Amino acid sequence: MSRETATDDATDPTSLALDAPAPQTPDDAEDGVWLGCIDCGETYSPFESVRYTCDCGGLLEVRYGEPSGFADFGPEGHSAATERGVWRYAAALPFDEGVSLPEGDTPLHRVPRLEDEVGVASLRIKHEGMNPTGSFKDRGMTVGVRAARELGVGRLACASTGNTSAALAAYGGRADMETLVLLPAGKVAAGKVAQAALHGARILEVDGNFDACLDIVQELAGRGEAYLLNSLNPFRLEGQKTIGFEILEAHLADYGTFPDRIVLPVGNAGNTAALYKAFRELVQADALEPEEVPALTGVQAADAAPMVEAIEDGADEIRRWEEVETIATAIRIGNPVNAPKALPGIRNTGGTAVAVADEEITAAQRDLAGEGVGVEPASAASVAGLRKLRDRGVVDDDERVVCLTTGHLLKDPDAAYEAGNDPEPVPNDADAVLEHLRE
Ligand SMILES: *Cc1c(COP(=O)(O)O)cnc(C)c1O
Ligand SMILES: [Zn+2]
């Protein structure tokens, strides 16, 4: 596997190159933490006022004077921490503790039959469906809702394909804050709406797709009517970095090496951006060599694939797709807001992006479930994508691969019912049941 790092701009502290130097701490930092623009390098105080993007329009990220406080994989180092889950990595986060349920510490499943069939040196499944509300969004919310408290905002809001709303409803409830969620009417899986409703959010159903919901929430946030907790919020991505830390630690413990590749579904590309940031900070802290960073490999559904298009075209920006469709509703997104952070992540780690058909997603969902790992359709896209890249010879047979499964099977009971075995009606009688089984 070969890779290129963007050495041409490595001396620029706003650069997203893997080998960029740690940025200088500006005067407006608070306890060594600030917000920095990935486009122009402008810096902002993190908690003085609410802000999601730079005045230049660029995306912001949380930056630290000490690059990754989490830099020690050994038994003497961070692994010895008593805290579990996301807050075990507090040294790499903007707070010491959060609004926690708690979250993180998810399993890295072995799937020997899939590993064998796909034909790689090893295949592990990082199952983020095992978080408190059943998706990785919880890792972002524990930090994001804590930031909301720090900022003293009154009302939380998000647009959502489902899981963000379930997570925000739960964490908003935990923090005793008013919570609004905007959902595309009729396009959200049943389990997710049920969660948002019961955890006490007000559910606003919009006659439009996810991207339209996000436009509205951004407008509300811009007018100061709500604190936005979509992945445009830089604090959320901080929590999601911990997926990367957990994968590296667990993989090192099991195999003595880091994975060669991490394959993940891509919607708004927040997770892709968060994993890349985790790795950049570890490289800055000399805890990881640039060559050791896993190749970030994004998977989208064929009819919702603007990131794949941008990677294939070598474009610096994505083209917004107005019409998107897939059974994987969690990644039914045509305008991935974190693309400017995620595209360099995929390119600078030697990764790639691939689109898969809905039937391939369903097949992968069934195969994962057959080995006991129950995931929702979007999650299975990771395995479907890996399979396709092996078939194309893009992924080698000697690679160690981790696939990220982002949400739990029960999130989308209708999809599970469709993909699974049909119930067989039988008479109320043991002999008749045996008779039926012999047929
Ligand atoms: C949110 C979500 C995604 C997409 O993640 P991004 O960070 O937006 O790319 C994928 N799968 C599931 C189940 C999700 O909930
Ligand atoms: Zn800027």
Features:
TrpB-like_PALP_sf, 4-stranded parallel β-sheet, globular, single chain, pyridoxal phosphate binding, 6-stranded mixed β-sheet, lyase, Rossmann fold, alpha/beta, Threonine synthase, 3 domains, binds zinc ion, L-serine ammonia-lyase activity, 13 helices, disordered N terminus, binds pyridoxal-5'-phosphate
Give the mean pLDDT.
93
Largest sheet: 6 strands, mixed
Q: What is the N-to-C succession of helices and strands?
A: EEEEHEHEHEHEHEHEHEHHEHHEHH
* Amino-to-carboxy terminus distance: 51 Å
Within the CATH hierarchy, at the fold level, what is the topology of the largest domain?
A: Rossmann fold
Instruction: Kindly state the percentage of residues in helix.
Output: 25-40%
Instruction: Provide the list of bound ligands, each named once.
Output: pyridoxal-5'-phosphate, zinc ion
Oligomer: single chain
Question: Would you mind describing this structure in some detail?
Answer:
It is globular and about 80 Å long. The chain has 13 helices and 13 strands. Helix content is 35%, strand content 14%. Helix 3 (163-174) runs parallel beside helix 4 (190-198) and helix 6 crosses helix 7 (270-284). The chain has helices at residues 112-118, 137-151, 163-174, 190-198, 210-222, 234-255, 270-284, 306-313, 339-348, 358-370, 377-391, 413-419, 430-438; strands at 33-37, 43-44, 60-64, 108-110, 122-127, 155-159, 178-184, 202-206, 227-228, 261-265, 295-301, 352-356, 400-405. Strand 7 (178-184), helix 4 and strand 8 form a beta-alpha-beta unit. It is an alpha/beta fold and 439 residues long. The termini are far apart. The strands form 3 sheets. A 6-stranded mixed β-sheet has the order 4-5-13-10-11-12, sandwiched between helices. The protein has a 4-stranded parallel β-sheet with strand order 8-7-6-9, with helices on both faces. A 3-stranded antiparallel β-sheet has the order 2-1-3. The chain folds into 3 domains: 33-64; 108-133 and 237-419, 3-Layer(aba) Sandwich (Rossmann fold), CATH 3.40.50.1100; 137-234, Rossmann fold (3-Layer(aba) Sandwich), CATH 3.40.50.1100. Bound molecules: pyridoxal-5'-phosphate and zinc ion.
